Amino acid sequence: MTHPDPDPAEAASPRDGVAPLIDDLRQFAGEARAYAAAEVAFQKARGKVVALGLRRLALLGLFALSFAVFALGALVVGLLLALTPLVTAWGATAIVAGLLLLAALLSVRGAVGVWRRMVRVLTAEGDDPA
User: In angstroms, how far apart are the furthest CA atoms of the chain?
Assistant: First the structure.
């Protein structure tokens, strides 16, 4: 027995394909909402990294500036004392100013390290910021 060819009038109507399309569109909309929520969460995390890094950078910069001011003050006082006939005033000036400048240098190096870490986190895609 042969099967007769289906009647073109009885073929699948265009409405038969609408329900799966609507389901696909609903699924796509749900995935788009999930992606948007994930993107917002990712940007919030990046913002927190920047905020914490900027706070640390500002604090270390403040320390560096403070130590540099103290070093200049010590240098001025030491130079005034060095004008006196005592040789030990130069030694005191060198020790105090040298230690304060070393502290300022360490603070600046710490600030540079924080800056580099922030830039590395912000430019790396898909890496864990921790």
Answer: 128
